[in-house]
Design goal:
The structure holds two protein chains of two kinds. By secondary structure, chain A is of the alpha+beta class. Helix content of chain A is about 30%, strand content about 20%. Chain A is globular and about 75 Å long. The two termini of chain B are about 15 Å apart. Classes of the chains: A alpha+beta, B mainly alpha.
């Protein structure tokens, strides 16, 4: 009896305690009808899958790091919403010498770091030298490897001396990787730089970072040098961003619907979009510069025949992938690079439309006959091709497998965890593989196609001296028209040889509570889908 | 305890070493040139033989240095100082629920054997052991946090001497403790039935002692030895199994830290978490052993004994 009473008491206390103090986070004030009035000094609470590893864009290339870096730091240049390069910390675009080997930047004179220290050319010089220093072991240093020397002749002038002409340097200087660091802060923090905090010139500063829980960013009130494509160039309208890290998507969605958070950053499952929108939330999309594509290892018997690769290209129903697996959230890709990407040049002669009968005819004409359900020729069978991808694309692999079976090409799919994916490619265990390719411009092709990049990331086993030369020419041709022609030729060769089958361009997605979050505009650069949040305002107090 | 902890660290290091994957590549990213990846391998000594890498790690450990995260740079010891108490709180509160709910449930079930109470208790126990933690956690969150808004949806709310702290730990601890509650209820019922069938219990009732006194003062105390053993075993299981609960409820404990380390093959983080969990299990087992002496004074903690 006593136990029974104890048990019932416990249950009542538990529930009563919860009911008595129910309420949770303070509810934001949202307009019931019509457009709400502008509210200054609001708070934004976001949620993302996991946190940045460290706020050091030279040491970590993770998307979460770059997302935070864009808020905390600034770069000399930046890309606007149409991917056009405009100045940011520089007063204007650089003066480039006639030989293309000297870039002179004039820095704005009103910029300071969160600590109050004014930005000078010494900080810029230090940033690039650290980036290029082999002891930094920066994974992204290759982006600016063309820089030979950095000079700071006066506190507001920076001169970059290049080893050779570059057509891609300005684009690289406009990315989050090129964030300008505070020399004093980096030297003072040493190994700890970016681990807990970092001093930048961006519109927000880190005030607290509880690892694996949340990062608190507060407005930098002295910020007034925001990019020209914002109506508000600083300081930001919102006074604080609480950036929370919630691994489980269902929990992020529940918190958004309950009003505990205002925005889910990135990776909204296509299958959940309709439900979120039905709950009064808004899913914002942006065409990010990323392509999902199928790549071939061109030395595998069978796949070394361009006719086989062409037939595969015609046999894949990309629309079925986008509509059935991703709810239409994405665009069918006919070209390896999104047409909006700088340097992309589509050649309609090498667009392979979905046509199963055409695929069969190509194989028949090339002598690949169906025997016992499998295409064969000269003792080579078009079967047992190992198709490697990450496990999250398992359904895509299965769909492609079934599509290729219709033309009697049999593939073995092998979804792997992220850890095992690139080592498997390096080990050469594959015949075909999936690539998820984010990029800012056509120079990405160098990493994946140059013969020196074998076995990774050039896992195609592809080597062509002419292509190598053209890839270098895109980087170094003094005349922009020659550079554009070089990359166009590379893209044409790739598609003529069918080295890749572009599948689709995914969309960057965010989910917001439209009653709370106003004036949010996503950005297409580097898959983050976000930028400086300068025009954004919220009704949460 | 020391050989146990050494064994855990050795096994952990060996498994990471043998697991396919390249931590240097994880740190550098897929686009990184091979020379950058090689540079990272050199910096972290990843090219060295297993014995050299493990020897260096143990040497640093002896000096109290648990190293830094390879991917994030933070000091492992500092992060463990923050996360270890969170996991310990979660495990202890989960154990508390399992004892406060499971033991009374099992006792009532044994005393009211064959009745509706017994059948409901059995049903609760079956549900508790059958449903995955992941499912229980999300369902509790959906019902009590999202629909009824009785509790918050997760994250740490503060120390346990604050009301906010208790509100935030309620759902994760109930989730984590569900399996233990169910198993404790079943074992308590079983041992109570065994004890209630003993002659001395029948004698006590025949002598006119009140039923409650017989059950709670005589029977339950004797039935507790196996229950205490199970509590100890369950606590060890909870320490290892807190990963899923911490992930669902965004609880900043060692489990989440370990997941982060595993997904990026961050060796110092993985080793640090293994060490922390191993020490927790060893210490909690010691506490359970001491508890035996209170439950049964005949048991003494002596050399060679428990």
């Amino acid at each position: 009896m006593m136990m029974k009473r104890l048990f019932l008491c416990l249950l009542v206390i538990l529930l009563a305690g919860g009911f008595a103090f129910a309420g949770g986070a303070q509810e934001p004030t949202g307009g019931e009808a019509g457009e709400p009035d502008f509210v200054k000094d609001g708070v934004l609470i976001t949620a993302t899958h996991h946190e940045a590893k460290r706020i050091d864009p030279q040491k970590d290339t993770g998307i979460e790091t770059i997302l935070c870096a864009k808020l905390i730091f600034d770069s000399l240049l930046i890309m606007d919403f149409d991917m056009k390069i405009v100045p940011l910390l520089a007063e204007s675009l650089p003066t480039i010498s006639p030989d293309g080997l000297t870039y002179t930047f004039k820095l704005r004179k009103d910029v300071k770091f969160h600590s109050g220290k004014p930005l000078t050319s010494e900080d810029v010089k230090f940033t690039f030298e650290r980036w290029l220093n082999p002891t930094t072991a920066s994974p992204s240093a290759a982006r600016v490897a063309v820089i030979d020397k950095v000079e700071a002749p006066d506190p507001h002038t920076v001169v970059l001396r290049l080893k050779q002409v570059s057509n891609t340097l300005l684009a690289e200087l406009a990315t989050g990787f090129a964030s300008i660091l505070n020399k004093e802060d980096v030297l003072a923090q040493g190994e700890n730089f970016g681990v807990r905090t970092a001093d930048g010139t961006g519109p927000f500063k880190i005030t607290n970072w509880v690892r694996n829980d949340h990062m608190l960013l507060t407005r930098f009130d002295d910020y007034k040098w925001g990019p020209e494509y914002y109506e508000n160039r600083g300081p930001a309208h919102i006074r604080e961003i609480k950036h929370t890290f919630i691994s489980e998507y269902n929990v992020r969605a529940m918190k958004l619907e309950a009003g505990e958070i205002d925005m889910i950053l990135r990776q909204i499952p296509a299958t959940d979009v309709a439900r979120l929108q039905g709950s009064g939330l808004q899913v914002v999309t942006v065409p990010i510069l990323t392509t999902r594509l199928l790549a071939f290892k061109v030395t595998i018997p069978g796949l070394d025949d361009v006719n086989v690769r062409k037939a595969i290209a015609h046999a894949i129903n990309k629309k079925e992938i986008v509509d059935n697996l991703y709810g239409g959230m994405g665009a069918v890709a006919d070209w390896p690079l999104n047409p909006n990407a700088p340097g992309s040049k589509l050649d309609p002669r090498f667009v392979y439309e979905y046509n199963v009968e055409k695929a069969k005819k190509i194989l028949d004409d090339a002598g690949w006959k169906v025997v016992d359900g499998v295409r064969q020729k000269g003792g080579v069978k078009l079967q047992n091709f190992v198709f490697i991808s990450r496990s999250q694309y398992r359904d895509e692999l299965a769909l492609i497998q079934s599509q290729l079976a219709k033309i009697n090409i049999l593939i073995d799919i092998k979804p792997l965890e992220s850890l095992g994916f690139w080592p498997a490619l390096e080990a050469g265990e594959h015949s075909m593989f999936h690539l998820n390719l984010p990029y800012s411009n056509a120079d990405i092709l160098y990493s994946y196609l140059h013969s020196s990049s074998r076995p990774r990331p050039n896992a195609h086993d592809f080597a062509d001296p002419k292509v190598d030369e053209l890839l270098l020419k895109y980087r170094t041709a003094p005349n922009p028209a020659d550079a554009a022609a070089a990359t166009a030729e590379v893209q044409r060769i790739m598609m003529e040889k069918v080295l890749w089958v572009p599948l689709y361009y995914p969309l960057g997605t965010h989910a917001i509570n439209p009653k709370v979050v106003h004036n949010f505009r996503p950005h297409p650069e580097y898959d983050t889908g976000t930028d400086k949040f300068l025009d954004l305002w919220t009704t949460r107090k | 305890m020391i050989p146990t902890v050494f064994g855990i660290l050795f096994a952990g290091f060996l498994v990471i070493y043998l697991t396919p994957g390249d931590p240097a590549l994880m740190m550098a990213g897929q686009d990184a040139p091979p020379e950058v990846v090689e540079n990272i391998r050199q910096q972290w000594g990843l090219n060295e033989p297993f014995t050299v890498q493990f020897g260096k790690y143990m040497g640093n450990l002896m000096r109290g240095n648990l190293g830094r995260s390879m991917t994030s740079g933070w000091e492992v010891a500092e992060e463990l100082r923050r996360t270890l108490p969170r996991t310990l709180e979660l495990v202890l509160v989960a154990t508390l629920w399992s004892v406060l709910i499971g033991v009374p449930l099992g006792t009532i079930s044994a005393v009211k054997r064959g009745t509706v109470v017994d059948r409901v208790s059995t049903l609760i126990a079956v549900i508790g052991v059958s449903l995955p933690v992941f499912f229980i956690g999300l369902m509790l969150m959906w019902l009590f946090a999202f629909e009824l808004k009785v509790f918050p949806m997760g994250s740490y709310g503060g120390p346990l001497w604050t009301l906010k702290g208790w509100r935030h730990i309620a759902l994760p601890s109930l989730t984590l403790g569900m399996f233990s509650t169910a198993s404790l209820a079943r074992v308590t019922r079983s041992t109570m039935l065994d004890v209630l069938g003993q002659d001395y219990i029948r004698t006590a009732r025949a002598k006119g002692l009140a039923k409650n006194k017989v059950v709670y003062r005589h029977a339950l105390k004797n039935a507790l030895i196996p229950v205490v053993t199970l509590i100890g075993i369950n606590m060890a299981r909870l320490i290892g199994g807190s990963v899923v609960t911490e992930t669902i409820f965004s609880w900043p404990g060692v489990g989440r830290m370990m997941i982060m380390g595993l997904t990026s093959q961050d060796i110092p983080v993985i080793q640090g978490c293994l060490l922390a969990k191993g020490l927790m299990v060893a210490v909690l087992n010691l506490v359970v052993d001491v508890t035996y002496t209170f439950v049964d004074p005949r048991i003494k903690l002596s050399q060679g004994g428990i």
